[in-house]
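Researcher: Before we compare anything, I want clean individual predictions. No alignment, no superposition, just each chain on its own. First chain goes here; please echo the sequence and then give the structure tokens.
Model: Echoing the first chain and its structure:
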Amino acid sequence: MNILSIKEQIYFRFQSFGYAYEGFKVLWSSEANFRIHLIISVLVLGLGFVFKINLLEWMLILFCVGIVFSAEAFNTAIEHLCNLNSKEINPEIKVIKDISAFAVLFLAVISMIVGIIIFLPKVLYLFSSI
């Protein structure tokens, strides 16, 4: 492999970060649910520092945050693909969009349950010690 191709590979790797940032901007500007997930995630991460959660709890919280953001991004991508296919109301496309939206909701609810399992005992302990 010559030097030029290595430089090109590095350039294309950096360029891919730019594409990812553009995707983030689309999600931020067009998806209210993405912004809600982001705000809740920042609050949950803050609670993690306040309550000094352990390593396993951090891993679970970070996994949940990551999976919900990923699901929201995939949902948005699926919606955009469906809209490319047809501008008219199509019952089959509605089913696809509904299933995709359910996947995000399901993961958000499961993540909320994980958060309750992790934080509720800590909150109850805090209030019982007052």
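Researcher: Okay. Second chain, same rules.
Model: Second chain and its structure:
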Amino acid sequence: MDDLEAKVQELLDRQAILDCLHRINRGIDRDDLDLVASCYHPDALDDHGFYVGSGPGMAEWAMAGHTESPSSQHHITNHLVELDGDEAHAETYFLAVNRQASGAVTVACGRYLDRFERRNGEWRVAARVCIIETVIDAKVADMMEAVDRSFAPYTRDRSDLSYQRPLTVNRRSAADEHRPATEKH
């Protein structure tokens, strides 16, 4: 493999690993157990503090813990990965925001330490340790009810708009309702 091919392969590997991390978070936020499970090798282990066990088992545990949470968002920030053939080690910072039905909001900040392995040409998590460094508890802003009424709805399942293909816009804004017919788009 020449130098250019090696560099392109490295970029492809890095992107595949980052895509896998994003799919895990999307799966957790949408309660999509199959999506999360597809990001772990069958023999993968995950240490999430209160849960230590298989990757798919972590997804079940996390989703069971979200039953009182109408929404969650897991954000990935800083991400470093060291590639070594068919193995890679990643350190990825995260923010996890969970809103409870009671109005309480918890923000957890930490890092995922992952060992990825490429098996049969696919990068998946082989081992994960979740480290939480900061937890913030707050009350959701009073405007949350207005936000829930004004923006497109979200769901914690595959009926969420993020799964819609092709994405279409079906809602009308309140401004459109009051605009003269000659100005409407």
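Researcher: What stands out in the second chain?
Model: Helices lie at 3-29, 33-37, 55-65, 144-150, 174-178. Additionally, The longest strand covers residues 122-139.
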